[in-house]
Design a protein that fits this description.
It comes from Azospirillum isscasi. This is J domain-containing protein. InterPro entries: J_dom_sf. This protein is mainly alpha-helical. The chain contains seven helices and four strands, in the order βααβββααααα. The strands form two sheets. Strands 1-4 form a two-stranded antiparallel ribbon. Strands 2-3 form a two-stranded antiparallel ribbon. Strand 2 and strand 3 form a beta hairpin. Helix 1 crosses helix 3. The protein is elongated.
Length: 211
């Protein structure tokens, strides 16, 4: 059974060493157990924890047999024996899963049924989101082609029937409801033009109510 060696970042090596010690196992045994339980194929779509960064590399001086010394480069490495060839990325992925599985913010094993349920729920949510987006697009105001100069223009943008009975609190409340929808960076119907007219309409109405 060949031994596969994969260089890694120091943080990953430390994490898997701690996980192995907590389970009373060696690092190679823990990684091999993970590969046996999960399988290399299941790791395909996981992100590679990454090769060593310059900060992970250290140097040390060793004494040679002839009495001389030599400075060598030390790179964090993971080693595991496996029946089939593995690339370095797969070994690193297995080490990450082995180090984090079961933790609150790490990897978790789920059954095929649970996975299907999650995927079904995600599909349902995507469909609902598409329906909601389409509905909002239908109901959203069409941007005005001219600056807001009259109260009816401002009430149209903010979705009010007319200006009568409005007060500062009502206008600000409606603005806070609509702004997240049209925010150009995070809105469901992101639109810089609509967001700009919302601001313009709110400011116009607030000034109009004070006059």
């Amino acid at each position: 059974m060949p031994t596969i060696t994969a260089s890694c970042q120091h943080a990953l090596l430390s994490a898997v060493e701690s996980a192995a010690a907590a389970r009373g196992m060696t690092v190679p045994a823990l990684i091999r157990s993970c590969l046996t339980l999960v399988g290399p194929e299941a790791l395909t779509h996981l992100p590679d924890p990454g090769s060593p960064e310059p900060v992970d590399v250290s140097h040390r001086t060793v004494t040679l047999r002839n009495g001389g010394t030599r400075r060598i480069r030390v790179v964090p490495k993971l080693r595991v024996r496996h029946a089939t060839p593995l690339d370095a990325a797969t070994v690193r992925k297995a080490a990450w899963v082995a180090a984090t599985i079961g933790s609150d913010d790490g990897a978790h094993l789920i059954t095929a049924g649970e996975l299907n349920a999650v995927e079904s729920e995600m599909s349902r949510c995507r469909l609902r989101l598409e329906q909601l987006t389409a509905a909002l697009e239908t109901l959203a105001f069409r941007p005005l082609r001219q600056p807001i100069r009259k109260p009816w223009q401002a009430t149209y943008v903010l979705g009010f029937t007319h200006e009568w009975g409005l007060d500062t609190q009502t206008v600000n409340s409606r603005f806070r409801t609509l702004a997240p929808i049209f925010h150009p960076d995070t809105g469901l119907l992101s639109s810089a033009e609509r967001m700009s007219q919302l601001l313009e309409a709110r400011n116009f109405l607030l000034q109009h109510l004070r006059s």
